[in-house]
Write a structure and sequence with these properties.
Length: about 800
């Protein structure tokens, strides 16, 4: 077959031309930057994404904000379609549904801690119900938006042309508080994502004040005392420790455990029910009900013919405790989920733990403080960086506002000084105006006025020349000169600017503060413990990884009975039969080329029973790609094993150190290049009808036929795993066939002539002949076959 032709992308002859690769790279970067800064990420300065900022500015232009003397008189709401139309037509030429969705979210009190839009009509529910069409709903700005929009016409922010240059829009809003923290944000950009939780206004304001007063010298501990954690719109309880919350705030990334809040309602005749009234963020009543339905009426998984043992067991556990669940949520009670127990005699703690562990009533809430910084770059920030950048932005905003106000004050003073001069010489001014051909030039020449003052005098009304007007001008000039002095002090003194910042932040916090909704109290994560009958079982594992259990122990059967024979699929054979109990654990050791050994744990109670072939162990765990199962062990958590590898290294570890709650297991044993795990050997602590005594020595055998025994005390126990110590000093090209702990005897298995399987049991006298110290070469043994494994007998 002819080889495929290659595409020759030659460099362009024109130096000014771009190659396709360069053009694609440039175009994609521009697109990525547009998504990051133009759609998905909020700005640290005002906490708004571009579409939110445009909606707020457009509604402000439409007169939908609050007015009156104290800003408490709200405008009449208008149809949401009018708002969306104005936003699309002037500032945001994108989908009308996208703009309306953003408007809806800003009006939902369960999505935002401090809603920015006051919505009238159906704006959706926390259960996932969508909002009514925009032609049916009405909207106006919420009162708290005054903190974002009140100073917009005071020279505080820059304006840029809109998409078609027909008007202008603000680059940012002059936020008086850090809304990026107050309402949080969620978004996915190209290569970046953000998940900022909401916070309590009073706590954030106090943190800003403390940072300003401390001039950057506030410690992390002091800062996290003021802001102990997020404050979600729906309340709930954060059960993560203070250290976990602090780590997330320091790094700008983390995950918090959040739990629903509930109460126990006592009913007649000793009955009771559990009522959930606050849910974690992102969790709805409908979601919890669906999870309960899935637990109590599970579906057969894809590719399976029946329910798994885990599903059946979980169903039985839930139905043994839960009788009825109802959603009694209403307008007066946004969240009210009622759970009735099977009987009033059920422990309330057990009932609650089961619900928390099996449903989203306890879930994780991620933190990813990624946003567009004050320098215009999208980065992940710590809590301290967010607050410091907002304070820097606010200082610039107040400085611009003060400079803008100072200019207006000085202009007004200039005008009033001209009027004052006129009132002192009113008759002469009137005469000049009546007689001069160019009164403006004549007034400027006579009284040394500016062009601006002369123009104002010529436009002045006659009634403003009254005696009373002179008094008013004098009073206004006095007030303006005092204001001018204050503004000049603010602009010339950083300390005065900081004092003004603190004063304004405290005043705004007093106006809009509210109590914290989310309780922060560290608790242990709920873990459902399925009750298992503690009984003796035998775990039977085949060489090809099929596993099953039989009730009882083979050694307990009638005296004189033949050793049990287990049947397997054609071509399969017994790996091992482990006498243990139903509450114990099966360990599965998985190996991969040039990788460490992972240990997977499966509860014995979840293994299939009966007389069939059992179930492949690979269906009970999640093996990594390229990993295959090498060895098994089943026994109690207190048992300890000798773990050795073909490189001649080994250590002792307890079963409890290798147990993992994850189906993906845990990396535990390190091996060198080309090395493999040998068969694990029991050291002590196992169960069974006749448990083996604690081992006193270790026997090692190499594939080259050398044997070394030494006292087990020379080995180390490694609770966290590793590679261990040298067991035997191997010669070049020799490998360790196996190592077993023992008290009196071991069995060496191997392959003899013609590939025939051989084995030989070595008693203590023979083993003592190979006694030495750990890491020695051992003695050559005339076994007559090549060892492949060492198994403990006694």
């Amino acid at each position: 077959m002819d080889s495929q032709p290659t595409l020759d992308l030659q460099s362009p002859e024109d130096d000014g031309a771009l190659t396709l690769a360069d053009y694609a790279q440039t175009a994609y970067l521009e697109y990525a930057l547009s998504v990051v800064k133009g759609r998905a990420l909020p700005d640290v300065s005002d906490g708004q994404k571009p579409v939110q900022r445009r909606i707020l500015y457009s509604m402000s232009r439409m007169g939908l904000g609050f007015g009156g003397a104290n800003g408490t008189v709200g405008a009449k709401p208008v149809k949401s379609a009018r708002v969306v139309g104005d936003v699309l037509g002037r500032f945001h030429p994108h989908s009308d549904q996208a703009a309306y969705d953003a408007l809806v979210r800003m009006a939902q009190d369960f999505s935002q801690r401090y809603p920015l839009v006051d919505g009238q009509g159906n704006f959706g529910s926390r259960d996932g119900d969508g909002a009514a069409a925009m032609r049916y709903t009405e909207a106006r700005l919420a009162r708290i938006t005054s903190l974002l929009l009140d100073e917009i016409d005071e020279g505080t922010v820059d304006f840029i042309p809109n998409y078609d240059g027909s008007t202008e829009e603000p680059r940012l809003l002059p936020a008086r508080l850090p809304f990026a923290l107050l309402n949080g944000a969620s978004g996915i950009a190209v290569g970046l994502a953000t998940e900022i939780p909401s916070h309590n206004l009073r706590e954030v304001a106090d943190a800003c004040v403390a940072l300003i007063k401390a001039n950057g010298k506030l410690t992390d501990e002091e800062l996290f005392t003021i802001v102990p954690g997020p404050d979600y719109p729906g309340g709930a309880q954060i059960i993560s420790s203070a250290a976990d919350i602090a780590d997330a705030y320091r790094s700008g990334r983390g995950s918090l455990k959040v739990r629903a809040r509930w109460k126990i309602e006592e009913l007649a005749r000793g009955q009771w029910q559990l009522v959930v009234n606050e849910l974690p963020p992102g969790v709805s009543s409908q979601k919890v009900l669906e999870e309960i339905e899935e637990l109590t009426n599970p579906k057969i998984r894809a590719g399976k013919k029946a329910l798994s043992a885990e599903q059946t067991q979980l169903k039985a556990a839930v139905l043994s405790l839960l009788d009825v669940v109802r959603d009694e949520s209403s307008k007066d009670a946004p969240v009210r989920l009622v759970f009735e127990p099977k009987t009033s005699r059920i422990s309330q703690d057990e009932f609650t733990t089961m619900l928390l562990a099996q449903t989203s009533l306890e879930s994780s809430s991620s933190i990813n403080l990624t946003m567009v910084g004050i320098d215009g770059k999208p980065t992940q920030k710590s809590l301290r960086q967010m607050l410091n950048e907002w304070i820097a932005f606010r200082e610039i905003t107040v400085e611009k506002r003060s400079r803008h106000r100072l200019g207006k004050v000085q202009d007004r003073i200039h005008i009033l000084e001209g009027r004052q001069l006129v009132l002192l010489n009113i008759d002469e001014v009137i005469a000049i105006i009546r007689a001069a051909e160019d009164p403006k030039a004549a007034l400027i020449a006579r009284f040394n006025l500016s062009d601006r003052q002369a123009e104002d005098i010529l436009e002045i009304r006659l009634r403003q020349l009254a005696r009373l007007e002179a008094i008013k001008i004098e009073q206004e000039l006095k007030g303006l000169r005092e204001e001018q002095k204050k503004l000049e002090d603010i602009l010339s003194s950083p300390a005065a600017l900081r004092r003004l910042l603190v004063k304004e932040i405290e005043a705004d916090a007093k106006s809009f503060e509210d109590p914290r909704r989310t309780l922060i109290q560290a608790e242990k994560r709920a873990v459902a413990e399925v009750r298992v009958v503690d009984e003796p079982v035998t775990v039977i594992v085949s060489q090809k990884g099929w596993v099953r259990t039989q009730k009882g122990w083979a050694s307990e059967r009638a005296a004189g009975a033949a050793a049990p024979e287990y049947s397997f699929k054609s071509g399969d054979a017994l790996y091992g039969a482990f006498e243990c109990r139903s509450v114990d654990t099966l360990l599965v050791f998985g190996t991969a080329k040039d990788k460490g050994v992972r240990v997977y744990s499966v509860p014995v109670a979840s293994l299939p029973g009966g007389r069939g072939d059992g179930q492949p162990v690979t269906t009970l765990i999640d093996l990594d790609s390229g990993t295959h199962v090498a060895h098994y062990f089943a026994g109690p958590a207190g048992a300890s094993l000798l773990l050795a590898n073909t490189g001649g290294y080994g250590f002792i570890a307890a079963v409890e150190n290798m147990i993992s709650r994850q189906r993906g297991g845990k990396a535990f044993i390190d091996v060198g290049e080309g090395e493999q795990l040998c068969r694990p050997s029991l050291v002590g602590g196992a169960g069974g009808a006749e448990p083996l005594p604690a081992a006193t020595h270790v026997a090692c055998a190499s594939t080259g036929g050398r044997i070394l025994t030494f006292e087990i005390g020379e080995l180390k126990a490694l609770p966290k795993g590793g590679r261990g110590l040298t067991l035997i000093d191997l010669e070049a090209k020799d490998t360790l066939a196996g190592a077993a702990a023992y008290t009196r005897s071991v069995k060496i298995e191997g392959i003899g002539r013609g590939g025939k399987e051989r084995e030989e049991t070595l008693e203590i006298r023979t083993l003592n002949n190979a006694r030495g110290s750990r890491a020695r070469k051992g003695k050559a043994a005339d076994l007559g076959f090549k060892p492949t494994a060492v198994v403990r007998v006694l």
